[in-house]
Amino acid sequence: MSSAPIRRVKAGALDVAYEEYGSPDGEPVLLMHGFPYDPRCFDRMASLLAAEGYRTVVPYLRGYGPTRFLSAGTMRSGQQAALARDLIDLLDALAIPRAALMGFDWGGRAACIAAALWPERVRCLVSAGGYNIQNIAQLAGTLPAEVEYRLWYQTYFNTERGRVGLEVNRAEFCKQLWRLWSPSWKFDDKTYARSAQSFDNPDFVDVVIHSYRHRCANAPGDPSLEGIERALAEQPSIKVPSISLFGADDGVAPPSAKDKDVSRFTGAYERRILPGVGHNVPQEAPEAAVSALLELMRAN
């Protein structure tokens, strides 16, 4: 499937670039990508959902592709509250009162936060990676050795060497993360290149570095978002109908044997582990992700 023409809308602090598929009168679904990916990871999902009649919106997150900040003076924050605020602002700008959400990595975090703090705006949620709301107090401390090993790139980004390294070598660095995080996915150079062009956004490095420093309590957040961050520090539950998808071969956040998230989802909830799938669930297992969304939307 070819990508749809890029549309633009002013939403909150951003001039958001997004793609739209399916009927404009269909029930809305938002698909939210993560780091270091872009809307190309949803091409197959968008095609399948459009064929079912859903209005499918796939935005470029702040710092990616053609999305731009409206003001040079706006903090290039990558904190979780900013991503969630962007999602709600986009719904408002598109006059969408309520949507089904699917996301992974950063996009999954935005979707989880929206479901937790603005449940009236979320019909249902498919989150690749489960309860994706950061516990910053925990992340700022010492983590188990296995977790620290898998989060090596975050430690790197918390150094000046890491910032410079991402600036000058972003394409190869992000490609290496794809390899490590999805070891059983045999993507080719052409597939990667289609997404990698989104990392040339002039705000990409600033947003990425801030994201990984803020979550480790090594950078201040945007003062305008402190109210959201205080709410997230309470680790709010998610009440909307939800399905969590985990790639069994995820190289950065492999699923635990026991479901650690079950207490965080207080509405209808199911956890599914996908064999032979890594971190990039929507691109590696689009049919499974669409199936989960359709099940929730048809039942609720």
List keywords for this structure.
300 residues, alpha/beta, nine-stranded mixed beta sheet, 12 helices
Helical stretch tally: 12
SS-based structural class? alpha/beta
Spatial gap, N to C terminus: 29 Å
Largest sheet: 9 strands, mixed
How many β strands by DSSP?
9
- Percent helix range: 25-40%
Global Rg: 18 Å
**What is the mean predicted local confidence, pLDDT?**
96
Task: Name the overall outline.
Answer: globular
Weakly predicted, low-confidence segments: none
Can you describe this structure?
The protein is an alpha/beta fold and 300 residues long. Helix content is 39%, strand content 17%. The protein is built from twelve helices and nine strands. Strands 1, 2, 3, 4, 5, 6, 7, 8 and 9 form a nine-stranded mixed sheet that branches. Strand 3, helix 1 (43-51) and strand 4 form a beta-alpha-beta unit. It is globular and about 50 Å long.
